[in-house]
What does this fold into?
Amino acid sequence: MKTSLNLLFILCFLTIKVHAQTYIQNVTVVDVINKKMIPNQTVVINKDIVTEIKPVNKIKVPQNATVIDGKGKFLMPGMTDAHVHFFQSGGLYTRPDAFDLRKQAPYEKEIDWVHQNMEDFLLRYLKSGITSVIDAGATYNFLKLRDSYSKNTTLPSVYMTGPLITTYEPDAFKNLEKNEPFKLVKSIEEAKKMVQEQLPYKPDFIKIWYIVIADPKDMEATAKKYEPIIKATIDEAHKNNLKVAVHATERLTAQIAVQNGADFLVHDVEDEVVPDDFIKLLKSKKVVLSPTLTVMDNYYKTYAQKKQYNTYELENANPTTVGSIYDLKHLSDSSDSTTVNKLKKRFNQPQIDAYARKKDSIRVINLKKLSDGGVTIAAGTDAGNIATQHATSFIAELKAMKESGMTNWQVLQSATINPAKIFNKENSSGSITPGKIADMVLLSSDPSENLDHLTHIEMVFKNGQPLEANKILKVTPEILAQQQLNAYNARNIDAFLEPYSEDVELYTFPDKLISKGKEAMRKSYSAMFDRVPELHCEIKNRIIHGNFVIDKESVSGFRKNVKVEGTAIYEIKDNKISKVYFLP
It folds into this structure.
C-alpha cells in the first residue's frame, strides 16, 4: 500500500512538472545583450524560469506541454520603467506644490484615489509589456501596498523606496504622516535617523531629493553646504545594504552625489553640457542614469493648455487621470480661473518656450554623450507627475531617447537589461537567457526596426505565466464612457470611436434613431471636430447603473460664452458602447 502511495505521489509530481512547462515554438528571440535577432527558436519555461533556448528542430515537445505558436512573432525581455511614483496619479491634481488646485480637489481625495488605483496602474504597466517598475520616491503607506501586491505573481515587480530624504520639503506635503512623500533633513544626525526610520518598512533602496534653491552665484556654496548630509545618507544606506538613488539635475549636485557614493541618478543633467571628466566619473563608479526626457515638457504643455495625448495613450492610459488634464478648459471659468489663466498666459510666452527648448537641448546632448561614453542608461519616465501617465508614457520616453541619437538597440537595452543592473539583478533578469526569470513580451512586429512596434503586444509572460494582453485589464462601462469623453475633448476621431461597437446606434431619447454604425459616426464627428477647435465637454454628474452610464454634460466651443447642457445615456454590451441616448 505504501509503495502504491509513493508511486502515485511521483506520478502526480511528474504531471505537475509537465504542466508547469511552456514551449514557445518557432519564435524570433530578441537578444538585447548581443543586439541581434535569433530566429526559429523554441523557448522553454519551467515554472518561472527560462530553462532552454534552442533551434526549433533541436527540442522535442512533450505531449502534454503548453505550446504557444511563435511563428512570425518576436519574444523580448519584459521591460522596466526605472522611474515612477505611485503616490502621484499623472493627473492634474497630483502635485499641489507645482499647481495648487486644492480648492477644486482636496489633496486628501487624491491620496485616497492613488491608493485605490495602484493595482490599476500595475495592470496597465503589465499590459504595456512593463514587467518591473522602480518607484523612486513613495510613502510608508505605499511600501505596505507594495508588500500586499507582491503576493500576486502575475503583477509587475515593484522596487520601491520610502519617502524622499530631502534638503527641501514643499509645504503642500507636510504633516501627512505615513502619506508624506518627503522627509526634510537638516543635519548629519537627522540624515542617519531618517534612513533608520525607513528600515522597518523594508525599502528596496533609499532616495535623496538633492534640491538646491539659491542664486546662481551662491549655487556652488549652497550645494557644498549640503554635501555632509548627502554623504551621511548614502553611507548609512550602504551600511544597511541599500543602494541610493539621487535626484540631482545640476552637474554640480550630480557630481557631488556620485563622488559620495550615489548608485543611481534618476534624471539627466540639464543646466550644462557635461564634461568628459564627469562621464568618466560615472562610468568608473558604475553609476546608472535614468534621463527622464519628457516629464518637464508635459508640465509646460499642461500649463499652456497645449497637452495633447495621442491615440495610443487615449486608449490605454488610466482614463480618469487623462480626463483631469482636460479639466483645465472648464477650470478657466472656475474660482481658480485666475491661477489657471495666469499659467496659460505665462507658459505660452516665447521666452518660456525658449527656456524649455534650451533645457531639452542640454538633456538630449548629455544623454548622447553619456551613452556614447559607456554610462549605463536606464529608461524611466517619472510617471505620476502631472500629465506623465503611468505605463503609456514609456513609449514617448523611449522615442525621445532615440531622437537624442541612441540606436534602437541601445534604447531596447535601456528598457530591459540595463535597469536590472540597478539592483545587481542582471544575472537573473533583463534578458531571455536560460536560468533567468521568465518575464517576457511576445510581439507581432520587430521592435529593433521601429520602437512603435513595442505597442504590438500579443502576450506578456510574468514569472513564466502567459497572459493575453487584451485580457489583462478588465473593461468597465465607466472606463469606456470616460475614454470616449477624453478623445472627444482631444478631438481624436480614432480614439473616440474605439470604445464603440461596429453597429452602434445613436438615439434622441427615447427611440428616434439618429445614426447607425461606426462609419456614420466617423463622418459626422470628424466634421464637428474639424469645425469646432475649442470643443469641450464637462461632466457635471455621472451615474453608473449596471451596464449603463448616465452623464449630465455641459458642452462648450460652438459659440463664445455659450454652453449646451444635456444628458447622454451610454449602454454597454460585450465591452463596447452599443447604444447612446441623448436627452436635451
